[in-house]
Structure formats: C-alpha cells, structure tokens
Write a structure and sequence with these properties.
Elements (H helix, E strand, L loop, with lengths): L6 H18 L5 H26 L3 H25 L15 H17 L1 H20 L5 H18 L8 E6 L2 E6 L4
Length: 185
C-alpha cells in the first residue's frame, strides 16, 4: 500500500466533489441548496473513500472500510430502534443517532486514519457540513449528529489500521487514553 494519497488523485477526487456541488447549486431555493449540498457530500464521501482504496491499490484498506461501514451503520440502525428519539421536524422517532452523520464520518475517519491528515482534514470538514445540514434542515438534533460521528470515529479506531502517513494515535492506557505523536526524520 502506498503511504500517502497521491496529490494528483486527491485533486481529481476533490474536483469531482466540487463539480457535483456546483451542479446542485443551481437547483431549488437557496435554503434547499444548503441541504442538497449536504446530500451530495453524504454520497461523495464514501465514494471518495472507496475510490481511494482502488486508486492506491489498497485491498486491506478496502476490506477495513467495508467492515467499518457495516458495523457503524448496523449499530446506528439498532440504536435508532432502541432510543426512539423524535426528530425536530416531528416526522418520526428515528432521530438518534444520525445515520447520515455516521456514514459521512465513517468515510472521513477512514480517510484520515488510513491516508493521513492531508486527505483526512478536508474529509472531516465535508462530514461536518453533512452533519450541520441535517441540523439545519430540522432532521436531527445536534446530539444526534455528535453521536453518529462519535460512533463512526470509534469503530474506525478499532478496525482501521493506520497507514504510514498517520502521525497521531490514540492509545488505551490503565488510566484512560493517551495521544501519541510520531516524528520521522
């Protein structure tokens, strides 16, 4: 596996997302465009993560991505049935945790953990936008989004092996957790 997402490939993947957002921006009312942009990113993030595993010839990462998605989304689905929290717009009682945030943050956490912060930071920003759009559209409470994001992050920490581009690690200790930092020179 290559340690870093090739800059040319990353720029290409980013361009696809920007083009999709540009096309969506011409649809509907202004408020609808904010929400639609979140929907585009919701689908662009997992597509970007999966494409990265093929572009970088990373079958191990691809397998870990599929496992992380499966566990995160199935856990989110089960929690929705157990918690039964009403959505802010009152449409149903499946608000907690946010399935959309869990999906978006699974992609972001995978990209960051596997390919480093160069690719992970934009992915986290895009996932945060997805979460914000769900709160803005009254589909979720902020805590629903935070719970979906935390679930996704935790599953990725558990299942996804860091690529060599990763410089930070969260390590369990007897007293809790420790943040480790690696310098190479």
């Amino acid at each position: 596996m290559k340690s870093r997402l090739n800059r040319r490939h990353f720029n290409w993947l980013s361009s696809v997302s920007v083009i999709a957002l540009t096309l969506i921006s011409n649809l509907g009312h202004a408020d609808d465009r904010w929400i639609q942009a979140g929907e585009v990113l919701l689908y662009a993030l997992p597509l970007t993560a999966a494409t990265a595993t093929y572009t970088l010839d990373d079958p191990e990462g691809r397998s870990q991505l599929v496992m992380a998605y499966g566990i995160t989304l199935s856990s989110s689905y089960v929690l929705k049935g157990l918690v039964e929290r009403e959505r802010p717009d009152g449409t149903d009682d499946l608000s907690f945790p946010s399935f959309s945030a869990a999906s978006a943050f699974t992609s972001a956490a995978f990209i960051q953990r596997r390919y480093g912060w160069d690719a992970g930071l934009p992915a986290y920003l895009a996932a945060s936008y997805v979460g914000w759009s769900k709160v803005y559209s009254d589909r979720h409470h902020p805590t629903d989004v935070f719970a979906g994001a935390a679930l996704a992050w935790g599953v990725n920490q558990w299942l996804v092996e860091p690529g060599s581009a990763s410089q930070f690690a969260l390590l369990p200790t007897d007293g809790g957790m420790a943040l480790a930092f690696q310098l190479s020179f």
